[in-house]
Structure to design on (251 residues):
């Protein structure tokens, strides 16, 4: 916990806050050296005889509750043995506690057609939009088809973006990771997804860029990532967790 987020109290030997003790905040007290003195205590409660200053960092309102963010994961491949679905599940496994990854299915969405949209839109459109709206963040996990976005995922992006002015994507922090057995790791699809997200006002994590080439051998039959790729996936999802924390609720 950074000291800027801590408050310091005088405690009695039982760890109770003294009634008359002033609340000491960093930089606002004659005891300005206290935070330095306390450095290394690592948040532990220290019980000392009365008269000795004991410090117990208290989380302020902004850090007291650690929120769990729901992430809507859109997978660009429909096939059962999809490498990208394995990748999405591996990321869900590796995700820190602050993220809950949920795959939102895109395969049943009718091709987007403005004529059938509106108040009597297909139930699949409504279900999909509701799931996106309920999520705090977005994660795109996709192959590339012909150097671009696979049609089911592009269709899902179009469905989620409408009706005009009611996009379910707007303002939600996102990230893109692509995987392909080929050498380029789905670069074309990755950047076409990014192009759509610029228009849809989705703040996308820039680094690390994630194009997994040679992906046919990166996961075993059960979807477990190889030791070689696992550290990168861990770094990706951990960095993304920080990105979500910084940008969720920013609309
Ligand atoms: C219609 C189609 C187009 C494809 N185009 C590309 C491509 O442009 N670049 C590429 O690396 N792989 C391409 N592939 C191969 C896919 O990357 C490969 O099938 C991959 O396994 C699909 O991802 P998945 O395993 O998650 O289903 C294409 C596959 C299909 C079916």
């Amino acid at each position: 916990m950074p000291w800027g987020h801590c408050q310091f109290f005088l405690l009695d030997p039982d760890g109770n806050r003294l009634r008359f003790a002033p609340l000491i905040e960093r930089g606002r007290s004659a005891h300005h050296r206290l935070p330095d003195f306390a450095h290394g205590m690592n948040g532990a409660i220290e019980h000392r005889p009365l008269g000795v200053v004991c410090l117990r960092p208290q989380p302020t309102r902004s850090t007291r509750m650690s929120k769990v963010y729901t992430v809507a994961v859109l997978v660009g491949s429909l096939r059962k043995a999809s490498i990208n679905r394995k990748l999405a599940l591996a990321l869900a496994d590796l995700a820190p506690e602050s993220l809950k990854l949920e795959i939102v299915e895109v395969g049943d969405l009718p091709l987007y057609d403005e004529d059938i949209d509106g108040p009597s839109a297909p139930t699949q459109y409504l279900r999909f939009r509701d799931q996106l709206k309920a999520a705090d963040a977005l994660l795109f996990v996709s192959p590339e088809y012909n150097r671009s976005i696979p049609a089911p995922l592009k269709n899902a992006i179009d469905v989620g973006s409408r009706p005009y002015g009611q996009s379910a994507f707007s303002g939600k922090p996102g990230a893109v990771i692509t995987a392909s057995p080929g050498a380029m790791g789905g670069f074309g699809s990755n950047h076409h997804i990014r192009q759509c997200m610029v228009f849809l006002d989705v703040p996308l994590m820039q680094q690390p860029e994630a194009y997994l080439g040679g992906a046919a051998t990166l996961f075993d039959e059960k979807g477990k990532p190889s030791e070689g790729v696992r550290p990168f996936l861990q770094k990706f999802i951990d960095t993304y967790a920080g990105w979500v924390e910084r940008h969720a609720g920013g609309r």
